[in-house]
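User: Okay, second chain of the day. Same drill as before: sequence in, structure tokens out.
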Amino acid sequence: MFCGVLATIIQGGMLGILNKKFGEVNLLVSGIFCLGLGLFLIPFSPTLILFLGAMSCTVIGECLFKTATRSLLSQLAKAHETGKILGIVQSASSLGMIAGPALGGFTFVVMGKDSPFFNGAILMLIVTVIYLFNMKQIRLELRTQRK
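Assistant: Same drill. Structure tokens below.
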């Protein structure tokens, strides 16, 4: 319930304000980083307060990441391809919701109880670095699309 309420507050009110202030590209990178940080902190959260803090970071990161990704993709896609692109993203997300728990369960059994969180954090770190190296190109593409 806590995560759902927090996500509703972020997506229902704060996201528009943050987007106007920082822009989608910055929100995307911040979201990926925050999601990875939250995943990393979960195993180090022995109390409810620390766990809720780590989960807050995870929820905030996911809200920023998902919303900014869809927004950027719809802006960068050609008008006749927007629906196709967003459909592919939704399909990939659905596949991730199938493969993610299966791989997380596998690593939990093979590598230990904290491994799914650490693996997720490592993946988010890799994605953050990739986006940091491509932010300039993404911003250039956005400027070109808006003209």
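The chain has one domain: 2-146.

User: Thanks, on to the next one.
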